[in-house]
Amino acid sequence: MVDGDVPERMQAAAFDEFGGPEVITLRKLPIPDVADDEVLIKVLSAGVGVWDAYERQGILVPEGSSLPIVPGSDGAGTVIAAGSKVSNVVVGELVYVSATTRPKGGCYAEYTVVKAEYAAKVPDGVPAEHAGAMPTDALTALAGLDTLSLSAGSWLLIFGASGGQGHLAVQLAKRQGLNVIAVASGADGVALVTRLGADISLDGHGDLDDVLARIRDAAPAGVDAILAMAGGATVDRLTETLVDGGVVAYAHGVQPEPSERPGVVVRAYDGESNPRQLQRLNELIEAGPFVVHVAETFPLGKVREAHQRLQTSYPGKLLLTVA
C-alpha cells in the first residue's frame, strides 16, 4: 500500500537524448507503479558514477529503458511501499539499492521503484545519506576480492586505492585479514587510505622506482595479488612485485586492460547485485567502523555539475542529495 502522502508526480533528473551533461534536466514525472516483487523508495541520496555518464552517453543503457531516462543505479532512502511478494525489506526501513536493471527509472529522483532483490537494509555504522554512494563500487570491490580468493595474511596490492571502488576495497580486504598495500592518488589519497587501515600507503604519482622499492621492502617474498582499479603501464610495472603465479584482477571496463605475461594470471570480474552478495557485504561492513568517503555533494538541481565533476580527479565518491 502506498502512503497517502505520496504525490502522483515527482521531481526527477532525466534526459530525452544521449549526450553530454547538458542533456540532463529537471522535470516532473509520474511516480511508477509498484509490482508484486518491487519496492517504492523515497530517495534520500543517489551515487554518481562513471556508469551514469555512460548511460547518459548511450553506451550503457539499462535493459528495458525508454526515454525519458532517469539515471542512477545507486541510491538510498526509505521504503514507502512494497509489493505482496517482498520479504527482504519492509515499509519504513532505510535501504540502499544497486539496480543495474531498472526499466522504471533510477535514483536521480524523489522516488524510485526497483526490484526488491536489489535492495538491502542500510548497514549499521554507515550514514544513510552516504549509503547512496556505496552500492555498485562496494559490490564490485567484493567481487574482485572473491575473484582473488586470498587467505588471511596474504599480501594484496590495491592500485587506485583512493578511488570510489578502491577505498572500499581497502576496508573490505582488511576485514578479510589481508595485508594491504594501497597505491593511491596524491597526498590526499594517501592520507585517506592510511586512515582506512592500509598497512602500506604509497603515492602512485610519485617516482615509480621508489614505489616498487617500497613494495619489495614491505613484501620481500612478493605480493600475492593485485586488485587493479585502473590499467596501463603503471599496473604492468607493478606486476614485477608479484610472486610467481600471482594474480591481477581488474573490473570489466578498466582500460587499457592489464597485460598478460609469464608467471602472471590476469582475471576480469564484475560486481553482482543479489540478496546473497548484499547480505555478505552488510556482514563485512558491520564487522567494524566503515567509511564511505564522499568527496563532494550536490543537490539534485546541480546534477549537471556533478557529471562534470566526474571528469576530474577526486578521492572516494560523488553524491546527489535528493531529500
TrEMBL record:
<dbReference type="InterPro" id="IPR013154">
    <property type="entry name" value="ADH-like_N"/>
</dbReference>
<keyword id="KW-0521">NADP</keyword>
<protein>
    <submittedName>
        <fullName>NADPH:quinone reductase</fullName>
    </submittedName>
</protein>
<dbReference type="GO" id="GO:0016491">
    <property type="term" value="F:oxidoreductase activity"/>
</dbReference>
<dbReference type="InterPro" id="IPR020843">
    <property type="entry name" value="ER"/>
</dbReference>
<dbReference type="Pfam" id="PF13602">
    <property type="entry name" value="ADH_zinc_N_2"/>
</dbReference>
<dbReference type="Pfam" id="PF08240">
    <property type="entry name" value="ADH_N"/>
</dbReference>
<dbReference type="InterPro" id="IPR051603">
    <property type="entry name" value="Zinc-ADH_QOR/CCCR"/>
</dbReference>
<feature type="domain" description="Enoyl reductase (ER)">
    <location>
        <begin position="19"/>
        <end position="320"/>
    </location>
</feature>
<dbReference type="InterPro" id="IPR011032">
    <property type="entry name" value="GroES-like_sf"/>
</dbReference>
<dbReference type="InterPro" id="IPR036291">
    <property type="entry name" value="NAD(P)-bd_dom_sf"/>
</dbReference>
